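To whoever is on call:

I kicked off a structure prediction for a single chain this morning and the downstream step that reads the tokens threw a length-mismatch warning. I double-checked the sequence; it's 482 residues and nothing unusual in it as far as I can see. Pasting both halves so you can look.
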Amino acid sequence: MNKSYKYLPKDKRKKILLITDDIRVHSGVATVGKEIVLETCHHYNWVQLAGALKHPDKGKRLDISNDCSKQANIKDASVFLWCVDGYGTPDLLRQVMATEKPDAILLITDPRYFTWVFNMEHEIRKVCPITYLNIWDDYPAPMYNKAFYESCDMLMGISKQTVNINKLVLDGEDNSRRVFKYVPHGLNSDHYYPIDKKDEKYLAFRKRVLGKDDSKTKFVAFFNSRNIRRKQIPDTMLAFRAFLDSLPKEEADGCKLILHTEVTSNHGTNLAKVNEYLFGEKYKNNILFSTNKLSREELNYLYNLADVQMLLTSNEGWGLTITEAILTGTPIIANTTGGMQDQMRFVDENGKWFTPSPDVPSNHRGTYKEHGEWAFPLYPATRSVQGSPPTPYIFDDRCKWEDAVDRLTEVYNLSPEERNRRGLAGREWAIGDEAGFTAKHQGQRILEAFDELFQVWEPKAKMSISNLNEYKGKFLNHKLIY
């Protein structure tokens, strides 16, 4: 973190209009939005179109400045919420802009939720810039997103891959006043951290989770995410079953897989049936489902209880549970795809932290094998192009569950002390300036990005002329084999 952004009095600050999930709720984007607001409200005033599916406070304008002041430890934060169903409407946005007079708009979540904003881009950008904290799961570079990206004055990519994708999609456009920045997810490292394993509250929690098997449990693998197809939970379970089969019975009895997810979901599968089929009577005590909502403290305990966190997902923009694990000092087994490869710190031929380029847009082909010692990566065995009408093409990176067995065995064969050492090395890197996967680093990067934007941004002209005869198509502009 280079430049220091000191406190500004309320009347000296620029105002940013945030459009995403209500920052008081617990979704991933809401958490990110909240951390950004709290880490920057000493320098910017904030107003939010605070979205929810069926917002209980719809139509209200709420002042949460006092709460934010306390959490940010300043005296005069200015944070207001306009509560809406969804993310708003064009007429509501016009009303909010006329009332609040923001200096910039910040969008966070999938671009298809903001089509109505992008359709207004010429109207909006005559008054203030549109900025977008965005992510994209995989290649080929989504040229179908071009109109969305082109509508933005600043694109902040959550993963290095996303920054490269943003630039590839807008290659050949006038980007002289468009800002591209890398702003990875940042979490509060005081919420996710290694704890004293002799702490009485932790030991009571462990006993509650493991029950009568507490004393004989020697190894715990952990999965924490939604029960949806791309998370590959049955593959995780299949790998764990084969791992148990490779051990003597008395050792296998001391191993657990904890699944913090829904047991049944229409977006995923019936994990109870998968469990019944794979583990049966022989291993019926080796799988534990955690379905209750946990407090932040309890979730931190659960990460600390684990010896390794697993995420074999075939598409993953970032993988926030991997970040949580790393911050708690827990090693990770993860598929090399999307933003998860950022968190494994692959090293390129120059000894640098790998940054995608048109020549090597991803490491999902295993181009680079050197990585952080806290990571136990899997490399996709197949890359299949999937799609839907809104997203016509995207790679689905499938790793082999057999490879996950090997990684589990590798972690298991390390001593507890060595697993702990590697996990702590991951945390030290994650909270350091190079990675900076903390809320403070994220806030600093947001401040730096907006500072640069405000220096170069100019309002759009009242009208523009486009020559549609110059259209040359939307073609692949990066390597597929590398």
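Update from on-call: the warning came from a stale cache, not from the record. Cleared it. Sanity check on the structure: The first strand starts at residue 14 and ends at 21.
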